[in-house]
Amino acid sequence: MYDSFARLCADEKEQNLALWELIRAEDCAENGEEPSDSWLEMKHMYDAMKEEDRDYDPRRLSNSGLVGDEAGRMHTYRMAGETICGPFMSLVMERALKIADSNACMRRIVASPTAGSCGVVPAVLLSIQDARHIPDERMIQALYVAGGIGGIIASRATLAGAEGGCQAEVGAASAMAAGALVSLLGGSAQQTANAAALALKNLLGLACDPVAGLVEVPCVKRNVVGAVNAISAADMTMAGIASRIPPDEVIDAMRTIGKRMDPGIRETGTGGLAGTPTAVRIREQIRAAKQEK
Amino acid sequence: MKLTDIIGPVMVGPSSSHTAGAVRIGNAARRLLGQPLQEAVIGLHGSFLATGRGHGTDKAIVAGLLGMAVDDRRIPDSFEYARHAGLSFSISGVDLGDAAHPNSARLMLTGREGRKLELVGASIGGGRICITELDGLPVNFSGDFPTLIVHNRDLPGHVARVTALLSNSGINIAYMQLNRAHRGGQAVMVLECDQEVPGSVLHDLQAMDGIVKVTFLSLLPEGDRFDV
Question: What is the pTM of this model?
Answer without folding.
Answer: 0.92
